[in-house]
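User: Hi! Is it possible to get a structure for several chains at once, not just one? Here's what I have:
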Amino acid sequence: MQRYSGFGLVKHALSHHENWQRQWRNPTPKKEYDVIIVGGGGHGLATAYYLAKEHGITNVAVIEKGWLGGGNTARNTTIVRSNYLWDEAAALYEHSMKLWEGLSQDLNYNVMFSQRGVLNLGHTLQDMRDIQRRVNANRLNGIDSQVLDAKGVQELVPIMDCSKGARYPVMGASWQPRAGVARHDAVAWGFARGADARGVDILQQTEVTGFKILDGRIVGVHTNRGDIGAKTVGCVAAGNSGVLAKMAGFNLPLESHPLQALVSEPLKPILDTVVMSNHVHGYISQSDKGDLVIGAGIDGYLGYGQRGSYSTVEHTLQAIVEMFPIFSRVRMNRQWGGIVDTCPDACPILSATPVKGLFFNCGWGTGGFKATPGSGHVFAASLAKGEMHPIAAPFSIDRFHTGALVDEHGAAGVAH
Amino acid sequence: MFHIYCPYCEEHREEEEFHPKGQAHIQRPADPEACSDEAWGDYLFFRDNPRGVHHELWVHAVGCRKFFNITRHTVSYEILETYKMGEAPTVTAKSVSEKDKQAGVQAATGGWQTVGARPESEALNDASNQGARV
Ligand SMILES: Cc1cc2nc3c(=O)[nH]c(=O)nc-3n(C[C@H](O)[C@H](O)[C@H](O)COP(=O)(O)OP(=O)(O)OC[C@H]3O[C@@H](n4cnc5c(N)ncnc54)[C@H](O)[C@@H]3O)c2cc1C
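Assistant: Yes, the chains can be modeled jointly so their relative placement is included. Here is the combined structure:
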């Protein structure tokens, strides 16, 4: 793997940038792998990367039906935070946050992780009580988190309407300074390049159409490019996880919904942090390119169509303009949707399944981008050992039968 | 944007008047106390979530406020029928794929497109056929 550096940039400038190495190969599928990862989004690629890097398992394939990151990974609004309420969730997301902090160096790939802080606004007394409780829980877990009042919020974001005259006045917020945003497709590409350099085969345009199961054990997958054998298979397919589970003969407690986002025309720098509001339901940040990145809520109905309702977009923009009257004339450039796999307790599923050797990593729903490195890291350890990593263990499918849910609706809700 | 026919108002109205309420025809266990943890968990949390034909409950929230059912395709989003509470659907995953077969459309067996109105594989939607395929 050709390492990237400032010196390299100068060197390649001399040859007009025509001799850059390809970031990953386009290999022909082998007959058999030790591990197959289904789904070439951030989580799948991170899993393959850590399998190779930390566990020395390099006879691995990542099978992706489309292109890398073309699922939710490159459709999300890139908010990264770890201020979750419950210990189990906080451990998982904070593990991820720590990996984010060294990720560009580790991958030798600029994922543009920018710790510009995230505000979660409170608009009612109950919002503020919940924020107090969550911030206290965060601090007990060693996660940086503060409660701000309306004045504190106004100081951070002078352009926001924090007046008492607003339709839903801002009463305060939780503030996580280490939170922020990252460049989504660079995350997929960085993990792909690192995995490929260690011998992982990345197979794009290859769709898993079924599983080969012998005596209750996984032995491989069917694909549109033929059958491929494997001792262990990890499915990391977000919105399509339920479809894959059915192929393997069991159900998951997931529902797939459309979730939309939109970006505006590029503006001069105007918003240097991330603002989220569960109450009016809108969240917004400004990308380095200058466009405002705005996330909507899910559509309430099931959908696999990667597009959503116009009314949902309209509600979101109403909330944004309510919070930021200054944006009322900004024009929107593009709008799109992803398919999010929502779980009843708003927490992911990282789990063994009724089929031996077949594992699922899914249910991240509307908020899994932030978990990409951590999820890949603990899932790789679980696949390597054949049993779930301690941080992943509370997130098994069993919890929907034992009742040991990790109910993050209060802290995560529909937010990201 | 959906244009939904309310079987009670007997009129088409805009999506904004309605709320989706999840999968239809879920039976509450007759004797919850007698349920195993498995059966109770399945009832509470596990849903069909098909990529294809789906029967779902909606409420005409700012109209007649009545609940009713919709059969809808979850990839094309096409509404195939709406029907009252207590009625059975006339359009199902099976009937749709039969119709397409007659019309010469190839029913997918496992493979599908991201966007477009291709019906799901019959085998996948048929609840009795959820055994592993080897
Ligand atoms: C609009 C929007 C905004 C969001 N905002 C945020 C946010 O601000 N912060 C945050 O933390 N999270 C956010 N999320 C959620 C986040 O994007 C996801 O949780 C996360 O990216 C999931 O990553 P993944 O790698 O698991 O899935 P994906 O990136 O979806 O990857 C799954 C891959 O599996 C492939 N696949 C599926 N079926 C098959 C098959 N049969 N064979 C082969 N390949 C298959 C798909 O093509 C896809 O590429 C948002 C999501 C959306 C849609």
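The first helix of chain B runs from residue 37 to 45. Residues 17 and 62 of chain B are 5 Å apart (CA to CA).

User: Great, thank you!
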